[in-house]
Amino acid sequence: MQAASTGNTFDILKPSTRQRIAILPDMGQPEANFAIDVAYQAQKEWAACMGKDRDAVLRRLYDLILANCDDLAVILTAEMGKPLAEAKSEILYQFMHGAANGSVSRTCHS
After folding, report:
1. Any bridge partners for residue 104, and if so which?
2. pLDDT tens across 18-77, in order?
3. Which of 70, 63, 51 is nearest to 95 (CA)?
4. How far is 51 from 57, CA to CA, in rounded Å?
5. Rounded to an integer, what distance in angstroms lies between the CA atom of residue 67 and that of residue 61?
6. Distance CA 27, CA 19 (A)
7. What DSSP string describes the chain?
8. pLDDT-based confidence at residue 107 (cuts at 50, 70, 90)
9. Are the CB atoms for 90 and 80 separated by under 8 Å?
């Protein structure tokens, strides 16, 4: 993980116990500008890809989300304090909802 240019960090706490579960860099404007520049370049490369190649990437993402849904739900539960079943449903719903509403389709055919 990249350090913040300031060296500052912040804690991620488990809501139910206030136990620290992660320490993250406290990013600022320089890191935001860098992320925007990298995303701008990546979008150009993504747009230049054939639709079938973008589809393969999105399919791989879908497969990874399904394969790791339980682990993702545990992380979401620790971070947000919601019940595990709700976290798992939210992960699956958000991904499927985006696909059903055309988010994946629009990305593939832009």
Report:
1. none
2. 999 899 999 999 999 999 999 999 999 999 999 999 999 988 988 898 899 999 999 989
3. 63
4. 10
5. 10
6. 22
7. -PPPTT--EEEEE-TTT--EEEEEE---HHHHHHHHHHHHHHHHHHHHS-HHHHHHHHHHHHHHHHHTHHHHHHHHHHHH---HHHHHHHHHHHHHHHHHTTHHHHHHT-
8. very low
9. no
